[in-house]
Amino acid sequence: MPTHAERRLIAYSPEQLFDLVADVGKYPQFLPWCAAARVRTRTATELVADLTIGFGPFRETFTSRVDLEHPARIGVRYEKGPFRYLNNVWTFAPDPRGCQVDFFVDFEFRSRLLQAAIGVVFNEAVRLMVSAFIRRARDIYGPPETAKTLAQPANAQPAGTGGA
User: Which of 98, 100, 110, 138 is most deeply buried (CB count within 10 A of its CB)?
Assistant: First the structure.
């Protein structure tokens, strides 16, 4: 029953980080444990995807239904695969310095062998996953200072330039 909750201030906009996390089909390009991803269906508010995760000699595929509440929240509901359950939630809250990201994951594998194997590396795997998303944001949006400027609405004035 590994569980992890983390809150981070990340210097990108909620919209940018939401879009990055919601782009499930690209996960194999940057998440170290994600061997494959297939988005079955996608609407503005929901997607269904198959992810294949691999670590060590283990390789498992699972299906999840992902609720998309742009740009504030992404909730993952487990549908089928090797887990007894899987709960995963991302929330994105605006902050003057970027975005306050809350990440929560809780799961249990059906197999005791898989559960024991992930238990040994779980904390390191989650740390690597969060770091991979931050690196991906930098790769896509540029350094945080550039990303914040690009994320401002066209009519916004940079801080400290006067105005009203």
Answer: 98
pLDDT digits (tens, 9 = 90+) for 5-26: 999 999 999 999 999 999 999 9
Ordered DSSP codes for 117-149: HHHHHHHHHHHHHHHHHHHHHHHHH-SHHHHHH
Strand order in the sheet with 73-80: 3-10, 98-109, 83-95, 73-80, 58-69, 46-55, 34-42
- Counting Cβ atoms within 10 Å, is residue 64 exposed (0-12), middle (13-18) or buried (19+)? buried
Which residue is associated with the tokens 């779980």? 122
Domains of the chain: residue spans and CATH: 3-151 (3.30.530.20)
Structure tokens at 49: 């995807």
